[in-house]
Amino acid sequence: MICGIDLGSRQVKIVLMHSGQLQKMISYETIEFYRQYGRQESNQLVLCFANLPLGTWDKVVATGYGRNTVHVKGADNIPEIRAHVLGAIWQTKLSDFTLLDLGGQDAKVVQVRQGKIQDFLTNDRCAASTGRYLENMANVLAISPTELGQYSDNPVDLNATCAIFGESELIGKVLEGHPLSRLAAGVNYTIFKRIRPMLNQLHSEVIIFTGGVALNTALQAIIARELNVKVLVPPFPQYNGAIGCCVYGGGDLCG
């Protein structure tokens, strides 16, 4: 049994895999997870596995996020780019694609050829193209992130490049009287505008879209429409990094 742990900025995802088959998937809010199950010791994260509902395992493989990667004591710790690529290959069985991962506070774009990482770009310095940004903008519009993710047509033009200024600009558009559908589509289109340069630089005909923002169907549609590419969302986009950790630990890319 392999235990894969993805220590994300907003959520900690844990996956158990045995003989190439997923056995269990659990997620925790990150800060609450650290409070309940972790402590720092000599610049490493010590996890109290006995209190986690995981059962037994043979190996733990962990990955983190961006510059704030935390090494888990007793685990094999691997770079997040490698974990997410392994997860994407395992979930889709593809070997040539561009991986787009949009999480709570960072964005990753990775070009993969014949199952190998060719190049990658990341943005973990600005929240303007992340799940946190979408949550804030949904709050401004007084709708859920799920409803926000349903609108892609006829977007209002939003030009602020900063998440904070973006909220002020959106409030201005609300006051101008634009309908909710166009306002929400405008928010989704701003995400696309910010990630478009990375997707153009590391272009592929197929984009595998992972992370929590991958559940935004409007953004899926906008990317496919504007770049004329095929967008695939694997079965478990939010657990992709943890699945990749399991694949690394078991060495099983076949599933």
Describe what this molecule looks like in 3D.
The protein has 255 residues and is an alpha/beta fold. It is 36% helix and 26% strand. The protein contains eight helices and twelve strands. It has helices spanning 30-37, 80-92, 131-141, 145-148, 163-175, 180-201, 217-227, 240-250; strands spanning 2-7, 11-18, 21-29, 38-41, 44-47, 59-63, 76-77, 97-102, 107-113, 116-123, 206-210, 230-232. The strands form three sheets. A five-stranded mixed sheet has the order 3-2-1-6-7. Strand 11, helix 7 (217-227) and strand 12 form a beta-alpha-beta unit. Helix 6 (180-201) crosses helix 7. The longest helix is centred in the last third of the chain and has 22 residues, at 180-201. The protein is globular, with a radius of gyration of 19 Å. The protein starts with a strand and ends in a 5-residue tail after the last helix. 44% of the residues are buried. The model has no long low-confidence stretch (mean pLDDT 90).
